[in-house]
Amino acid sequence: MVWGGQWHIGTSLNCDDCHLQHASKQGQSLPGGPYTYLLLKDNINDLCLSCHDGTNATAPDVQAPVDMYSSTSSQESAAGYFETVGIDNPHGHTLGVNVLVPLQNEGNSVTLTCASCHAVHGNSNYRNLLYDPASVGATITLEEGLDVFTQNNPANPPTVSGSIQAYERDNVGYKNDFSQWCVSCHNQLATNSSSTPPAHFNAHPNNVALNEFVGDYHTDPAHWTLGTGEGFAVDTSSTTGIPRVPFLAPTASDYTTSKIAQSSNKVFCGSCHKAHGKDNNKSLLWPFLEGGNNFIAGCQQCHYK
Ligand code: HEC
Ligand code: HEC
Ligand code: HEC
Ligand code: HEC
Ligand code: HEC
Ligand code: HEC
């Protein structure tokens, strides 16, 4: 098998990060344990968050508040962060509560854990993302170096600066259908249902390029490519505008080409939502539902009106 993720895979899958070898840890018995499969904690979220909550400085922090990226220009990770496990999270995916899957035809309810989306023992996908998160028999591949590009790999053994560089948002460039992975659960968005012209779609389209419908003025590819003015932040101290939103670069062949803004770039789920969450409602990249200065900042980057 080819390993695709960058950690918890192959030779970096250290059993004792998560399992006891016997019913004890360094000769000490584990209070309350051992747990199922000899895990160090009695549930998956607590196990993963025992390192990924900011207490282990080399493990990418995925639970608010997150400080580890404050020295980077993006100041955040690609996926963003969760809030407290077991409490409804209006700002992203809720962990550890039985909830309905929104925008899903079947309307299933699930209790999300890290293992709802990540393969705990690693796989060949980017960030060990599951091939079939909705358990419908799918095989969704999302490979590093093919569909997604990163410039800095995490260090082995892990280091604090290596993890910051590897997991900060600007270290990732997207090429192919990330949306396909998200819509395995949110399958009402699986197709762009069409509408009556001049509108093309019934809901916001995905995987559509800025220059796909030339001359209808729905989008402004020149404004997008330029990257200044309405919607765009001049720098991180700016109170108007936000950094360029993530996009798909269908013609990319490596990290550098995946970061070039051009009119063939496509809008996808990640242009508007973080995978884990952020401080805006519905995991959005800008305060669209809260209002204020920047409520349409992201929209303006592509639709300069
Ligand atoms: C003992 C601490 C520890 C535990 C427990 C742990 N992780 Fe990690 N994890 C790390 C570290 C450290 C890294 C970054 C490695 C590096 O920078 O070299 C990492 C990286 C990752 C990555 C990024 C992988 C990639 O391909 O880049 C994912 C995803 C991840 N962990 C998920 C999980 C999940 C899910 C669990 C629970 C099943 C978990 N981790 C439990 C320490 C831990
Ligand atoms: C990042 C955390 C993590 C690491 C590292 C890890 N495991 Fe696991 N392992 C889990 C979790 C979580 C489960 C429970 C999965 C579930 O409940 O579905 C599990 C379950 C298992 C199981 C029982 C279920 C199955 O999949 O067969 C075995 C056996 C196992 N692990 C072996 C290992 C071995 C051997 C290693 C080292 C090569 C290892 N694990 C490393 C998190 C981890
Ligand atoms: C709803 C699906 C989902 C759940 C649940 C989820 N993740 Fe992720 N995670 C993702 C996706 C998608 C990415 C990649 C995002 C990107 O690069 O744009 C990611 C990225 C990561 C990364 C890379 C660092 C970063 O912030 O970008 C780590 C580490 C990670 N996840 C750990 C976890 C842990 C630990 C949990 C449980 C506490 C968890 N994830 C739960 C979907 C999920
Ligand atoms: C394993 C199935 C699964 C996958 C995969 C998944 N989601 Fe979700 N999603 C859910 C569930 C369940 C909820 C409801 C959680 C809640 O109420 O907070 C949800 C809620 C959301 C919400 C609303 C959040 C809120 O605060 O109300 C957004 C936005 C979202 N998902 C976007 C995405 C994106 C983008 C991806 C791909 C990176 C993705 N989802 C992948 C299951 C999934
Ligand atoms: C990353 C670029 C991007 C962002 C961000 C973006 N859009 Fe779009 N939008 C597009 C593309 C591409 C199309 C399809 C091209 C077309 O319709 O000509 C589109 C189409 C539309 C349409 C027309 C739909 C139709 O029926 O044709 C509307 C309305 C729209 N967007 C509103 C918004 C709003 C509101 C926001 C912010 C919440 C937003 N867009 C954010 C790229 C973007
Ligand atoms: C152009 C920006 C944009 C794109 C692209 C986009 N969304 Fe959204 N999404 C929004 C906005 C704005 C909201 C909140 C307002 C609303 O519910 O209409 C939202 C809401 C959601 C919700 C919550 C619905 C609920 O009932 O709580 C989910 C789930 C979701 N989006 C998933 C996705 C997925 C999956 C993709 C990719 C296939 C995607 N979105 C692409 C802007 C976008």
Short key terms for the protein model shown above:
305 residues; little secondary structure; two-stranded antiparallel ribbon; 15% helix; 7% strand; globular; binds heme C
Bound compounds, please?
Answer: heme C
Count of alpha and pi helical runs: 8
The biggest beta sheet is recorded as:
2 strands, antiparallel
Q: In terms of structural class, how would the helical and strand content be classed?
A: little secondary structure
- Strand arrangement, major sheet: 1-2
Strand content: 5-15%
Shape: globular
Description:
By secondary structure, the protein is mostly loops. It has one domain. The chain is 15% helix and 7% strand. The protein contains eight helices and eight strands, in the order H-E-E-H-E-E-E-H-E-H-E-H-H-E-H-H. The protein has a two-stranded antiparallel sheet with strand order 1-2. The protein has a two-stranded antiparallel ribbon with strand order 3-4. It has a two-stranded antiparallel ribbon with strand order 5-6. Strand 3 (98-100) and strand 4 (109-111) form a beta hairpin. The radius of gyration is 20 Å and the shape is globular. The N and C termini lie far apart (49 Å). It binds heme C (HEC) (6 copies). One heme C binds at residues 102-103, 179, 182-183, 186, 189, 204, 206, 267, 269, 271-273, 282, 284, 288.
Q: What's the gist of this structure?
A:
This protein is mostly loops and 305 residues long. 15% of the residues lie in helices and 7% in strands.
